[in-house]
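Journal club side-thread
Mid-discussion, someone asked how the predicted structure for our own chain would compare to the paper's figures. Pasting it here so we can look after the session.
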Amino acid sequence: MSAQFRIQFAGYTHPGQVREHNEDNFAFTARLDGPETGTFGTWDLGPSGLMLLVADGMGGANAGEVASQIATTVIKERFDRAAREVPTDNWTEIEQFTLDSLIEAHQAIAHTARTTPGQKGMGTTAVLAWITQGRACIAWSGDSRAYLFRDDQLRLVTRDHSMVWEMVERGQLTPEAARLHPQNNLITQSLGDDTYPPKPEVRWVDLELYDCLLLCSDGLNTMLGDATIARLLQETTVFAELPGQLVTAANEVGGLDNITVMVLNVLELPAPEPDPYPGEGQITAETPETEAKGLKRWFKGLFGR
């Protein structure tokens, strides 16, 4: 396998136009097997890759902010150890480590909620991506999302753990009707709920050259439809401005919730290893594919490819 796996990533979070506090949080570890600078930008990844995380807290007073902060702290600390603990050639262990990271965060939040006055009932959603050796292992609990923008199409990688998304899967609502539904904030699982422990899901994405992976809290996708998100991914010519442009667009149409966005672009890709799980890396869109022209032209123009 070629050692060159070059990516660029950036992120932004904003409280929105209605909420006084920002209960969202995000975290990243840009070099799991090398010196960590703590900055966005362009990276040549080693075998262990990098981690991206978005968490959307909930609870009374500032408890949601506490829950999402616990999640980001616990998960980042785990991934700081990942290069030492997880063989990078074992996809099964990578997947289990990613899932266990969400469960450990859940346990830490639940413990704090039980033992700290005023924080009972707090929790957080989370979407977590471990990008390594040309693949992305994506695990999530709740309705924070991961999207893939590839070959002029925006595809939803995750499926919302929510009441309205269950109605979409039963054919009772379209995805757009679910986005606008008055009960679109009722989720069916999260981190921190002792009564209903989470059952995180995981999906793999085999990355391709010029792919764009987007993680977000629901403050983005409840304000903006997929067509608008895809258009902004296409039209924004400065990569570092992408998260801010998406957040600004969500605020311009109401900004009813906190909004967090992380984006990652694939600039150079290592040669793939043989797939030990044929078919599992394929993306099945959970929403109708959204046309957005010119993705590859945009990347080639932006990076001189």
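Post-session note: The CA atoms of residues 231 and 273 lie 33 Å apart.
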